[in-house]
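FIELD: query
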Amino acid sequence: MKDISLFIAKWISLGFGSGKLPHAPGTYGTVVGIPIFLLMSDMSLFSYIFLCVVLLGIGIWASQRYSEYLGVHDHGSIVWDEVVGYLITMTASPAEWQWIILGFILFRLFDIWKPWPINLLDKHVHGGFGIMMDDVLAGIYGAIVLLAVQYFLV
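FIELD: result
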């Protein structure tokens, strides 16, 4: 690839290659979010959220760039949105296996189910912003449920 920005956009969009794995690339992309979460888990809440916003911005750019190159909106191999959505789900959660797994399940549930208004964003908002934002909302829904479970069970 002669264009370095396209190479970088592709590498990020594909979740470091996980989006090219066969069958359920979004699930593999979410798995990529787990070690990133573990690296971020000791950050202050402000720093964690700030980094999520930075990763979201990078994802909007990368997804836009790579989807334009492919000529397909939200190609299945673009999974950076799942990475960021999972990180949002895990906001303020402990880095313990049960919360990591429950956060994974909740994020995937909301990402696949796409309750209102996630389904509207998915259908009507395009480009890098649209690719990322439905997963941001799925991540927010997942975070709300995960934090509620932690509040009532811990």
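FIELD: remark
Residues 118 and 137 are 6 Å apart (CA to CA).
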